[in-house]
Amino acid sequence: MGDMFRSEKMALAQLFIQPEAAYFAISELGESGNVQFRDLNENVNTFQRKFVNEVRRCGEMERKLRYIETEVKKDKVSIPDVQELPKAPNPREIIDLEAHLEKTEGDIKELSESAINLKSNYLELTELKLVLEKTQTFFNGQNEANGLDSAYKALIAEDLSNLTIGGHLGFVAGVINRERVPGFERMLWRISRGNIFLRQVEIDEPLEDPATGHEIYKTVFVAFFQGDELQNRIKKICAGYHASLYVCPSSLPQRNEMLKGVSTRLEDLNLVLNQTQDHRQRVLVSVAKELQNWSIMVSKMKAIYHTLNFFNMDVTKKCLIGECWVPTKNIPAVQKALSDGASACGSSIPSFLNVINTSEDPPTFNRTNKFTRGFQNLIDSYGVASYREANPALYTIITFPFLFAVMFGDVGHAIVLVCFGGYLVIAEKKFMGKKSSSEIFNIFFAGRYIILLMGIFSMYTGFVYNDIFSKSMNIFGTRWSVNMNKSQALKNELVDLNPSFDYAGTPYFIGVDPVWQLAKNKIVFLNSFKMKLSIIFGVSHMIFGVCVSIINFVHFRKYSSIILEFVPQILLLCFLFLWMVVMMFMKWIMYSAVTREMGNEVKFGSSCAPLVLIYFIDMMLFKQPDEVKNCEKYMFEGQQELQYALVFGALACIPVMLLAKPIFIQCIRRMKPNVRSNGDVNQAVEFEENLESEQKAPLPHHAEEEEPMSEIYIHQAIHTIEYVLSTVSHTASYLRLWALSLAHAQLSEVLWNMLFSMGLKIDGYVGAITTWALFAAWAGFTIAILVTMEGLSAFLHTLRLHWVEFMSKFYVGLGYPFQPFSFKTLLEEEIRPEN
């Protein structure tokens, strides 16, 4: 957890690597993932860099791997996952791998082309066989297959006789795609003016396209015509519609003899096709075993050469020079990786690292683990923290699930969240091993620890609310005693609880007394209880956020901001809203539901209990509360004077926030030349550092030009107005804790009363069946609405409370993330889940 307090210290380092050891050194750095390289050749064209040829070679190998993978998946051969990631191959192994991939690609292409040729021959023979079989009815005059009546048969015979009067009757037989038949038929009619007689029959079974493997439906046709001119026209139309023409004898014996020969050839060709497919399958299975290893090695090689293009060549061409950001804790690991890379290639000249000073803003690196990574992602989604800025993710681990639980307080619904989050946590190794194609599931899995904590905290708040699926638990016994006999209790389903008469005087052990479940005034009580809790939690959360800003001021040595910014901000917040919280506690402590009489006056009874909100409004408007008979105006003597002092103190904080810091900066700038002219070097340096620290927000190491005083006054005015207005709006925004909690409880109660409880009122077998059916509906709506939708709503509201109400008090978030050169991260980004 200590690593999450603020981002780690970063250093800008220069790497001096020998050319022969560069590949091995970058490989070791990629395995460790500790450095983020800077491109020193930004102005150099991509095609003019030193290792562009090696990158092209890797790209060509990736193309071959993609082709091989496509062929493997086409034959539905499973690709096994790698158990252990291979390291990047050395330069000598690259040549062997490249040759092996080229040979594998050539073999698969040869097998594919051979299979396509065989399938094309098989398709042609199949179509010829179908033409010979389907055209038997055309030549024999048997039209029963087409459902023709006797009159239509006579008409066909007349057409054929008319075609044969003038000369020899010819025909063309073939196969055409079924969807092209209507256009093909119309075109034949137009070119012949009705002098072509077309017969067709559909092929029931689909045929396989040799190139794509898709199923296609075709139709056998025979076109009868007269004359060579029509024959040429028909062949051109067939070519235009991609119809396949086949030689079909006109006599029956010749057709039968050809059909036998075609059937024999088909059987032989089918045997050859099966043997070819078996051989192709064996080749692809052997290739699939190594495909993942090859892909990983090629990806690592390409990443290494791409990174080497970031380096500059020394003038003597004896050394490669690169720059990188590295966490100071990992400098020894980087030095070890450089030495391991030099020893791997047998270089006698060591590579070394040199830390250099820079005024550039370093990247932000927050070291996380699988538990804290989800919370850090929530913060980074709003904005990456500036370098060395206080990290809100550390506090979010507790505050986020707690504020969520305030809105989602129900033990039953929390158990569902705990079971779901616990399952994801327990089975995380199984889910991390295989990538899911569901983006929603990946989001849930990434936040599994957040879901688990939200469920655990919601179980606690649900226990405090004494709410489990809208019902209460009577664990410690009620502290109420209702003065009602048995007949009155059975007659009245709900009762009014009057603390003056029904309360025994001792509080319930923890949380809400279960008797409130039967009270008519339950909503009134819970409204007041949860609304006050939301204000208390909201003010405490905002005060904590303002206090966190001290951490940034101290770290960046902006000590003047503690006095000029933090003090007036915290006083403004405490003088107004913390005082409202104090009045709530005073009301709970001082006033009782049991009436205490002093003479003829009732001072601290429920009838004299003040409304804190009215007190607060009157305080802001400088009004006195209305008089109530036998009651005091204020809770204690001197409250009016104290409230006036608090309001005037809060108003006095506004000009301090508005003018104090700009005036201080202006004074420092005026004093700088005077101090230097006196010759006091130490004092001059001190004032200069103070000025720089005031002007450089949030990073004191970043060199900037002096900002004009006019802009400083404008920015300070904007910040002051924003903070003053936000104290009111943000406090009101925390009322969403009360609103969502009450809505969740009421929706749960309505769902119980409208569904499940109806089945419990029916006796006998019908009641049992009805209860089971209603329970299924109730459980489904509970999971879908109360857990999923209400949980998502509470999650988004909690996220808003942290991003806006809490983090705006101290968080700048203008940094950029540390993205190290890491093979693990690179491979995770390249892997895409299969659809």
Could you give a short description of this structure?
With 835 residues, the chain is α+β, with helices and mostly antiparallel strands.
Give structural notes:
The strands form four sheets. Strands 1, 2, 9, 10 and 11 form a five-stranded antiparallel beta sheet that branches. The chain has helices at residues 19-32, 52-74, 91-134, 136-140, 150-165, 181-192, 228-240, 252-308, 331-344, 373-382, 393-407, 411-426, 428-433, 439-446, 448-465, 486-491, 499-502, 522-555, 559-590, 612-621, 639-677, 681-695, 709-733, 736-760, 764-806, 823-830, and strands at residues 10-17, 36-38, 169-177, 197-202, 207-208, 215-216, 218-226, 244-246, 312-313, 320-327, 352-356, 597-598, 601-602. The longest helix has 57 residues, at 252-308. Among the domains are: 2-92 and 282-356, no CATH class; 114-274, Alpha-Beta Plaits. A hairpin with a 6-residue loop joins β9 (312-313) and β10. The chain is built from 26 helices and 13 strands. With 835 residues, it is of the alpha+beta class. It is 61% helix and 7% strand.
Task: Tag the structure with descriptive keywords.
single chain, 835 residues, alpha+beta, Alpha-Beta Plaits, 7% strand
Strand segment count: 13
Helix % is 55-70%
Specify the number of helices. Answer: 26
**Strand residue percentage:** 5-15%
Mean pLDDT: 84
Rg (CA only):
42 Å
For this structure, the quaternary state is single chain
Cα separation of the termini: 38 Å
* Largest sheet entry: 5 strands, antiparallel
Shape: extended
Which regions contain 5 or more consecutive residues with pLDDT less than 50?
A: 142-167, 596-601, 675-704
Instruction: Decide which structural class fits the backbone.
Output: alpha+beta
